[in-house]
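Protocol step 4 of 5: obtain the predicted structure for the target chain.
Materials: sequence only (see below). No template structures provided, no constraints applied. The aim of this step is simply to have a reference model before the mutagenesis design in step 5. Sequence pasted as it appears in the construct record:
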Amino acid sequence: MRSVKWLYLILVFVFAAATIGNAQPLVSAKWLHDNLNAPNVVVLDVSSAKVYAQGHIPGAIRADFKKIEVKRNGLVAELPDKAALQQYLRDLGISNNSHVIVVWPDTKLKMVYYATRTYFTLKNFGVNVSVLDGGLKAWKANGYKVSTEVPTITKKGNITLKDFNKAALATLEDVKKAKYLVDDRPADFYLGKKKHKVVAKPGTIKGAINIPFTMYFNADWTFKSADAIKALAKEKGVGTPAIHFCNSGNIASIGWFAFNEIAKLPARLYDGSMNEWASCADCAIACAACK
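Step 4 output (structure tokens):
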């Protein structure tokens, strides 16, 4: 019996060592189900408190998205302070050896950005993180149970964040010089038929190519394959490196994730997006519906 116990402990250690620092961008619902009780797996649900209370993956910890992206200098979706984020993640029980799985709610497709923006932030602060492909909808579609029980965090984590990887971000000046710009918003925003309340003027950045974020998904809300995303980029005439933007920098994280993480097409995220660009005096805007 003692040898069996030691074999089990060795296998647990080998599993943990194999996954720490080597997380794939996406994990399937089956993978998460099979590994839900692994000692280093932490499931973060980025739903609202109301949606989370209606049912979540057993053991999933709710993360407040407003701790992941913050308002700063008049912009609505900026990176959080490193120290504040580190303390928040520790409070959630996340440690240096954790493999964080981010889950988005199954209420609206656009809520995918809650997961991809969380992934973008955590990954570039050095956290070992993946996204559940298809979100909670995929979990339920596989027949797996949800729970309304709120797990108790009995021990704080010890995560130590790295300095943010600034190469993942694009500034306003970077955008002015960029060759490839991708507007991940729906076509009505790209054309200027609609305008978000955080954006001063309708339209898009001059020279940008529109790839509405829904084009990165299959019918079941799972992401398209790397080859399909590469084919989409080629069809749209988008080379690398591409800078992705939207109204505030959240939905654009879906495009960044699809390009940079799934298809391995180098990309950057302009988190200021149209929130910043449309308020810039010398930043050119194209607006097909305004003419």
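Step 4 remarks: The first helix runs from residue 2 to 19. The chain has two domains: 23-141, 166-290.
Proceed to step 5.
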